[in-house]
Amino acid sequence: MTWRWTTKHWRATLTAALLTLALIVTGCVKNPVSGAEEFSLMSEDQELAKGAELYPKYTQQFNGLPADDPGLQAYVRRVGGWLAKNSHRPELPWEFNVVNSSQINAYAIPGGKVSITRGLITRMNSEDELAFVLGHEIGHVAARHSAAQYTRGVLVTAAVLGVAIAVSDSDYRELGVMAANVGGVLLLASYSRDQEREADALGMEYMARAGYNPKAAVDVLNLFQSLQKREPSAVETLLASHPLSAERIENAGDDLKIKLGWATARAYNTRDFNQALARQKARKPAYAAMDKADDDYQAKRYDRAAQNYRQASAMLPQEGLFKARLARVELDLRQFGPALEHARQGATLRPDLYETNHVLGAAYLVNNQFGPALAATKNAETFLANNDNRFLIGLCYEKLGERDKAKAIYQAVRQLDPKGQAGDYAAKRLRALR
Q1: Cofactor stoichiometry and binding (predicted)?
Q2: How is the chain split among helix, strand and coil, in percent rounded to 5?
Q3: Which of 143, 269, 302, 387 is deepest in the core (most CB within 10 A)?
Q4: pLDDT-above-70 percentage for the chain
Q5: Positive or negative, the Cα torsion across 42, 43, 44, 49?
């Protein structure tokens, strides 16, 4: 078949080219670390706005904060805040937290928002090791690495959209959804090796300025290397966004010898670290049981999953996440009464989580309590908006006889998730409501 360019195709291609050119000529920002002028599609004001928007969402996606441990959060805020004051961008509204995930990971969001997982911090042995990980993430923000990734990704997406529009005879709704969603995905995209090297160097510089021993940086990198060999799945997410190489470890060692030897005689701070981590380290068996249950659930071994969630809950009764996940298993087993009981307990213990409220909404729904189901799913949406929960809200409205509201939500879900499960369910409900 011979391709023929039409006026539409030429117009679309020209529009994409002009858009790309306009983007290129409008964005120049000084790099806070190097002082050089760099092309960027993200200004500092946009950094701050994006960080404020995304930080709570990512915190929810990583299961919120660990239950009943405000002392740990205060400790990490103190350490991170002191490092940030010694960085190239002390004026940012920095925030630091520990998120309740067993993954071994840490991440930074533009605008000075940094998180470390429970799974990583409980593997550490000193405040100095913590300082390197936080300092490394501060380095990514200071050098505007996420803004650079965002800029590169938007330019590539603009070019791809231009080609896609030019060769497509269909409508552009799916392409529009792709363009609208690109920003949030790119902000946590994988860093380059050069960016990782720079973040390592900056993290070591900041921790040395702040009074820590930068030798801990090599300890942390060696820990990651060891885990990569012994427990590759544990560090898969971390290494996907933070590539590890022997070169990184060698470069860190060189920096110690050449630039930071003056700080390597300092004693590691283990006392304050151990005090701050005592509660979480004591809880490791409970979360290990949860992790086993999660694996069982993914493999559809529902009875074993329920048993492990119960074991986790017995060891740590105040963690409502265990109750919510037990309720989720019971929903799959069609044990609707016990599911509602455990979902209520989970949401009572942890009203601050998307997951506990979402599961509660589902449990109310299957028990034909549509008003409470709507309230719970709407509450879940205040923490994190996604198509699975939107579909449940639509279903609640349908069951309550509010067909127009239900149809509007189903239409939105179908457009936002045209090829996903939620979009498929929404399309089926729309056909049923004709």
Answers
A1: Binds 1 zinc ion per subunit.
A2: 70, 5, 25
A3: 143
A4: 86
A5: negative
